[in-house]
Amino acid sequence: MKKWSIILLSLMMIAVLAACGNNKKSDSGADNAAGAPRTVELKVGASPTPHAEILESIKPELEAQGIRLQVVTFNDYVQPNQQLADKKLDANFFQHQPYLDTENKERGFNLVAVTPVHVEPFGGYSKKIKSLDELKDGAKVAIPNDPSNGGRALLLLAKKGLITLKDDTNIASTKQDITANPKNLEIIELDAAMMPRQLDEADLVFINANYALEANLNPSKDALLIEDLQGNPYANILVSREDNKDADAIKKLAEALHSETVKKFIKERYQGAVEPAF
User: Fold this and answer.
1) What is the pLDDT of residues 13-42, one digit of tens each?
2) Total-model pTM
3) Which one of 11, 99, 157, 203 has the fewest CB atoms closer than 10 angstroms to its CB?
4) What pLDDT score was predicted for residue 1?
5) % of residues, the chain, pLDDT over 90
6) What torsion, rounded to 10 degrees, do the Cα atoms 58, 48, 203, 133 define?
7) Which residues make beta-bridge pairs with 113?
8) 117 by DSSP, 3-state: which?
9) Which domains does the chain have, with CATH numbers?
10) Does position 182 have pLDDT exceeding 60, yes or no?
11) Which of 200, 206, 185, 194 has its CA nearest to residue 128?
12) Which tens digits make up the pLDDT trace of 82-110?
């Protein structure tokens, strides 16, 4: 009986020691998990080209810093700001400062620019004419219907002497600011995303560079008239909300977008159609 008691006691001690060993291993695993860098999810809305492509290029760099970047693409200029304001996104990257200013004013947003990243030259394109000299009386000209980009188109037309504006430096100019239209141009206002489809309809179409690139148009080669890059006020910016603009992940994203790697990526991939703004 004594012998069996000793054996039973030995088995119990072995079980206790094994449990302690397992607990120690479990505690060690918990310590390792706690000591590992915490991964932060960062959800950023972007136009497919070039914005999303630029963001995709810095994913590995951010991953190494504990930031998992999720890029959500949009084919319009409305939803990215709405979803950022609704906190469905942490940031967005598709617009310039004049457009953001208009959005904040007209839609009551409180969105802020974090940093400029690149410049996309805005231009006028045509499938029907090869030079502006061929633009006939009464020709159809399609421009974006949002105030900032519509103003860009009108300023370019004024610069070429095709129209006259009250103030040819006002980037918020509208059709109502046209004081002379010697060719009786029929100026049609449509959503910016629809512009490439107007190439078969209108004689001259003003297209934002991101939509031009998606339509296999190179602004520096295919546009009949194009903005100067020097002193261009339309640098595309990383945008966040007021409540998260100073978050560590947003700061790291901004730093990554200003890296030499991104500068090289932009220059090599877009060959002058897009230029770094830093």
Assistant:
1) 544 444 444 433 333 233 334 555 689 999
2) 0.83
3) 11
4) 46
5) 82
6) 0
7) 239
8) strand
9) 41-121+233-276 (3.40.190.10), 123-226 (3.40.190.10)
10) yes
11) 200
12) 999 999 999 999 999 999 999 999 999 99
Q: Is the pLDDT of residue 135 over 50?
A: yes
> Can you tell me which residue has the tokens 């339309």?
234
- Give me the residue label for tokens 């060690």: 28
Alpha helix ranges (H) inside 69-125: 79-85, 97-107
Q: Which amino acid is at 249?
A: A
User: What are the φ and ψ backbone dihedral angles of 144, each rounded to 5 degrees?
Assistant: -65, 150
The C-alpha atoms of residue 178 and residue 89 are separated, in whole angstroms, by 39
Instruction: Record the tokens describing residue 136, joined without a space.
Output: 């006939």
Query: What are φ and ψ of residue 214, in 5° steps?
Result: -65, -25
Q: Calculate the alpha carbon distances from 207 to 17, 74, 175, 212, 268 in Å.
A: 74, 17, 17, 6, 22
82, burial (CB in 10 Å: exposed 0-12, middle 13-18, buried 19+):
middle
